[in-house]
Amino acid sequence: MSPITLFPPSSSSxxxxxxxxxxxxxxxxxxxxxxxxxxxxxxxxxxPLLFCCLxxxxxxxxxxxxxxxxxxxxxxxxxxxxxxxxxxxxxxQYVWLKGLVSIAWFxxxxxxxxxxxxxxxxxxxxxxxxxxAVQAGxxxxxxxxxxxxxxxxxxxxVAPGDREPGNPYFAELVPLAILAFxxxxxxxxxxxxxxxxxxxxxxxSVYCDIASDEKLFKTHNEKRDRRILGVLMLLLGGIVxxxxxxSGAGMATVLWIGAALKAGIAVAWAIWKGEKEIGx
Length: 280
Prior knowledge:
Order of helices and strands: HHHHHHHHH
Radius of gyration: 27 Å
Distance between the termini: 72 Å
Strand content: under 5%
Structural class: mainly alpha
Largest sheet: none
Helix content: 55-70%
């Protein structure tokens, strides 16, 4: 006679389990994080910096024409600032202030971009894309201010009779500071990527490095080639910027072009081949 079981053992198969209502994590987010946190491949990664040289030539040529100072070449601005101690140039006694503003905001830009890029991943796609997206956005703001005639764009001063000669229109300090700040970002990127021979904003040391290079006449010399290309790109940018500012298109067009180029560089970094993907 079989024993009577008052409480038969429960079977997992006898009670249907309810499906989980918690959504499973999307695989897209981890993939995006992995994609943008991957360091870029160094292959051809100097090409965006050469385009930065072109942008520097474009912007500095029109900035000097309009405001008598630079946004990226801070050696020239230092001399402009120094001349202010003797109240020179005589026809523009406040131009030293523009030099000071440009230097100060360039340094602040280098400080901010240097720490921001390294905190975001250094050579990663996301860090480089974000840095150039910010630069492009700032150039768009400056272009909008110029396009909207918030600041003068001819010789950096208001119309004759509205102010005493030599007194600048101080509103121009706003786009000047914005452009100088973003210019600090591109030279920081050249340092982060290890391309010190393409500083993107200054040529004095580049000229020296070209002339004093012991491998100057060697067939294979990548650093020499990058230095020469950087000089040519900056020169080309200055020539093109000068002709555009002289035409009816004016300074605003140059700034729109510069912003578009920087946005294109940001997109390029976003899809750049990753360091771990080499050889696949």
